[in-house]
Amino acid sequence: MTLRMKLLQFTEDVRPAYYGTFTQKSSVITGKTPFAQDTSNFDYEVDSEAEWEPEGEGEEINSGDEDEEEVSDYVDPEDSGWVVPEGYLSDNEGVEGEHDQLNKPRTANAPKKKAAIRKIVLGPYFEGETDQDEAMKPFEMQFLIDIPEQGFDPFFEELSRKKTGNITSFTNAANIGISSTPQSIPNHNKVEFTEEHKNALINLINEKQSDSIPSIISEAKATDILKDVSKRQLEARIKDIAIKEKRGSDTVSE
């Protein structure tokens, strides 16, 4: 059972108020008659305030009549052998060793101020977009082979050749009943960049000075002269014959 604390205080009293518990119950003093007097439990004739005296000031330990002892520089010859002057430290005194530092209780470090981590999401970036992120340029994906514009056929099967005497037959062509002429296989060999390719690329750059490098490459691949040149070759040639300038986006100029 928790006892509630009670405060008994009067404005005209000098004695400090009473603050504590009171467990006695009265049948006379109730909520409807709070000012009634219960003479069976309380003596209303006793004035406890008259008996109370405030505590006096504490005694002064130092007496004013005694003179302070003057500090003397005199040193007794008997004490001069082992008494050291004030502030003197021996060789190992005041220096903590490694063992002492390990046994020394560690104080808790002040908690570090924590803040929410801001998420930074970049990409995805696709080839042919006008805006390029220079920071992500070194991490772009590179193809091992140059893929033509129509894409790579995952179901393509290379024709297997069988030699019988002086006759070379293509098994796939014989099975499906078509000409034995081998099908055209996509040519992934590197095309030599000629002077004609260079002149066509320079003319395209002059026409598309405000476009980005991926946009110029897409335009070059759409022409008849530069369609067989790989995108990697075109990008390298553009950087060789053009100067990139920052004009709001990745632009080139001759």
TrEMBL record:
DNA damage in keyword set: yes
Q: Name one GO cellular component term.
A: CAF-1 complex
Q: What is its main location?
A: nucleus
| Gene Ontology biological process terms from the UniProt entry | DNA repair; nucleosome assembly
The domain of life is Eukaryota
Keyword tags? DNA damage, DNA repair, Nucleus
The answer on whether this UniProt entry bears the keyword Nucleus reads: yes
Compositionally biased residues, Acidic residues:
46-79
Q: What PANTHER family does the entry give?
A: CHROMATIN ASSEMBLY FACTOR 1 SUBUNIT A, CHROMATIN ASSEMBLY FACTOR 1 SUBUNIT A CAF-1 SUBUNIT A
Q: What is this protein called?
A: Chromatin assembly factor 1 subunit A dimerization domain-containing protein
**Species whose genome carries this gene:** Rhizopus microsporus var. microsporus
